[in-house]
Amino acid sequence: MEKQVKLSILGLAVLSALGTTVAVADQSKQASNQSSDIERIVVTASPFAQKLSDTPNSVFIVSEADLDLQRVVARNLSEMISNLVPGFSPSTETMSTFGQNFRGGKAIVMIDGVLISTTLRAGGRDLQSISVDVIESIEVIKGASAMYGNGEAGAIINVITKKPSVNFEMQTRVGVEAFSDELSDAGYSISQSFSGTTDSDLGYLLNLSGKDRGNLYDADGEQLPGAPNNQGGMGDADEYDVLFKLEQEFDASRLALLAHHYYIENKLHYKRNVNEENGLIEIDKTQPYVGPNPSTKLSTVQLTYDQDDFFSQQLSLSAYYSKVNVGYESASEIVSTRSGFKAAMQWTINDRSRLVYGFEYGKDNTEQGRDRDVLTGIDADGNPITQSQYICSVCDLTETKLSPFAQYWNQVTDDLTLQAGLRYENFEIEVPDYMRYKRGVLSAKQGDTLKYDKPLVNLGLVYNIADSTDIFASYSQGYSHADMRMLRDMPVDSVAEFADDIPATQTNYYETGLRYSDDSLQGSLSFFYSDIKDGYAYDYNVEALAAKRVAAVVVADEEIWGVEATLDYQVTQEVKLGTSVSMSEGKRTNSETGDDYWMNGTRITPVKASVYGDYRFNDMASLRLQANYVGDRDKHDRESDAGYSFYESPYDGYTLVDLVSTFDTDFGRFTFGIDNLLNEDYQPLVSQMNKEVIWETYRSQFSGYGRRLALEYSISY
């Protein structure tokens, strides 16, 4: 009987989707036409607009129309990007992006060009820092260039927020979501925006959004933990976002103010334990959870000024201040306060060449800590006497950065474009004296200033074979410091002694590929290779140099390589099909023995493929069916009969199918989605990393989400 009810719900859902299918038809067509234009302007993380045909590396644009479709089948921004962008790891189905990467490297996240990634101490919440309600588009720029910096040449994700409208406009959006097995346990969302431009050309936008998420359920209808691990989860979470913008247009210049505040709290109700029969994490409703809730809070203020004619050049100035708080259920909290300034000029030398140059200055103060029991003595019976004290594990670090840069483009011939750039990365990290905590005992550590600097170059060529086809090749360098968690377990007494053990990571990144686009067919193919010196990774491989392991991290040279391909085809006016595939692999080198060994699951994602089909019923109605596949990966031998080393357990792949439909009426738009349409029973990749680790205590596996239904209504007026 229960099975029949589930099938009935699924049948009704599909019939509802087919009956109410939707009117993103026109929007989808417009998005398709835009993406088919290879000369389209790309508003990147750089200060000035750039044509796609001038870009010698892979760029992927997620439009507002794409986001509108994905928002009913994805629970956060990380999941949306994973569904849409090849090369990005599958969703972790938690608050954290630990284990997610681009092409084996970390992604740097920006909002309107302002860095929000916590680089001194990776909090893993970079993509859990903004509501999709305020996003206009997302640009993913893979590799590095002189204007961006801040990375190891994995990718830059630049989230672009919505802009004020020309005429006064309000938009209301409400939504409800629930798992098919527990329709009464629903989550709700609401968003309200006000936007317009005054007669004096002052644009304004205010967006208020909130979400009250319901509990999570697996494919068997069992309630999942609100957070499957101590990184935080998406169950029963309260989320709100406030975005405010002012943009003043002058004759040849613009002045803009952005203020943004985001907060999410994952409310936990029960303790977790491991089911001994299947090894999966589950909730124990007999034991209430006592402790802090995982949370993320981000506040940002940004002021920008653009001048179109400053001594016959274009000028762009930007200043920002931001503060990030990342809280964990252990009561540990990362607090990162950042400010910075960027100045850039664009000199159009002639109609075939231009030069962008400038500098970037930034300051970042980061600390992580929590209350710990510190041993203060021994009583008369020989029992330890402890006192609770706040102890920092990463203590009041201050990074100061000053990086000049220059980027040059030249239209060498009508078909050949050259890009060359230079950036001087120059940063230092002040580490104060601090106390190291270990098993209740404190030991003094002497601070120092870590200094890093290196000139970086990038070079690229784009050749236009035909009106619809570009081939490109590029070489770029990345340079960045590590997550400073290694200071927590520094084995020596001073930072000066330890400095050589925490070098900056240097990346040489190579990419070549092809882009094709005409009225009905768009495609891309790219090959990439990274040669990395002093890469950082959680590493317990038996071939790793164990003597260099500090705080679970081993510094080693690395090689990463792979391929990506995309294809979109407008079969008829009614039917559009698309697919993408990405694959990467990598090895690390033991510097003492010279032996190479496969990288583990924290850095390498198995083959990933996606396919979708859009059907347009008429001028109003359309339907999308999409599937995302993740393959198997088994590259490591068992450490012993007891199991594998940390993060090296084999991956079992899975396929998730989603359905999205929308329907436009005179009263607004309805969007309906079914996430995990086939109710696949699976475990996310991050759950499988340690499923067969030699220490059973750390085999923290958890199930993925079951079938989820979502309905959203929006109206502009």
Structure description:
The structure is a single chain. By secondary structure, the chain is mainly beta. It is 7% helix and 53% strand. It contains 6 helices and 34 strands. The strands form 5 sheets. It has a 22-stranded antiparallel β-barrel. The longest helix is centred in the N-terminal third of the chain and has 19 residues, at 2-20. The radius of gyration is 26 Å and the shape is globular. The two termini are 46 Å apart. It is a multi-pass membrane protein. Belongs to the TonB-dependent receptor family. Residues 293-677 form the TonB-dependent receptor-like beta-barrel domain. Residues 52-155 form the TonB-dependent receptor plug domain. This is Ligand-gated channel protein.
Give a quick summary of the entry.
The protein is mainly β and 717 residues long.
- Morphology call: globular
Secondary structure: helix percent: under 10%
Low-confidence spans: 1-38
Return Rg in Å.
26 Å
- Please, what is the average pLDDT? 90
Give the end-to-end Cα distance, rounded to a whole number of Å: 46 Å
How much of the residues is beta strand, in percent? over 45%
Query: Could you describe the largest sheet, including whether it forms a barrel?
Result: 22 strands, antiparallel, barrel
Please provide the count of β strands.
34
How many distinct helices? Answer: 6
> Structural class of the helix and strand makeup?
mainly beta
Organism: Shewanella sairae
Family: Belongs to the TonB-dependent receptor family.
Protein name: Ligand-gated channel protein
Main location: membrane
